[in-house]
Design brief:
globular; four-stranded antiparallel β-sheet; mainly beta; 218 residues; six-stranded mixed β-sheet
């Protein structure tokens, strides 16, 4: 079934992260399984959300770390078991999201992604924040969740942060302001726990990480 993406505000950036860890399906294998038997897949949608007076875009991204395996032994991981696709605004050409697919993932699987985000010259000073939403298969609705919920429900550890610098040495607080024509960085670290229970095998998991930029001082 096709999941509708959330549309809360004037501009929504929809990013699908499709992976054996970030995709509309999460089929989790336990560590005792051979890699060839691993079938965990998860879809994560990352979105940028702003009002008309604010405008931010993803200018660059890197996969800083992953242990994704070459399960079909063809010598290719990026573009095969791990795919990252840029989602662009049809009118401006700005990168408004990323679709990441990792297939398959396994207990102990890791992906660390770093996004470089630009508060554009014609924008305003902003505060940045984020929210996580999970697709509930039963109610067929997006539900707001916390990092703790992801851990409790799916043995997914999600560690994130906003930073001033690419080396991630200058963390930002919720009160920090990103001035016009300045850059900031979003770190996304996702892992499937080593002790993920076998009851997760065969499940399907979708979640959205929604990044908000809101005018500072409002």
């Amino acid at each position: 079934m096709k999941r509708p993406l959330r549309r809360n505000r004037t501009k929504n950036v929809n990013v699908n992260l499709v992976a054996a860890m970030l995709v509309p399906m999460l089929l989790i294998s336990i560590s005792a399984f051979a890699y060839a038997q691993s079938s965990t897949q998860l879809t994560c949608f990352t979105t940028l959300t702003t009002d008309p007076q604010e405008d931010i875009e993803i200018t660059n991204w890197i996969v800083n770390r992953t242990n994704t395996q070459d399960v079909n032994c063809n010598g290719i991981i990026f573009g095969d078991e791990l795919n990252v696709t840029e989602i662009k605004d049809s009118s401006s050409g700005q990168i408004i999201g990323l679709e990441i697919t990792a297939n398959p993932i396994f207990p102990g699987w890791i992906l660390h992604l770093i996004l470089k985000i630009h508060n554009l010259p014609y924008s305003v000073p902003v505060n940045v924040s984020y929210a996580i939403h999970y697709w509930n298969e039963t109610s067929e609705q997006w539900e707001k969740k916390t990092k703790e919920d992801l851990q409790t429900l799916f043995s997914i550890t999600y560690i994130d942060g906003f930073y001033r610098d690419a080396d991630l040495t200058q963390p930002m607080s919720p009160e920090d302001i990103v001035d016009v024509n300045k850059y900031f960085y979003k770190s996304e670290y996702i892992t499937l726990d080593e002790n993920a229970p076998p009851t997760l095998q065969g499940q399907s998991i979708d979640f959205i990480v929604e990044v908000y930029a809101e005018q500072a001082g409002i």
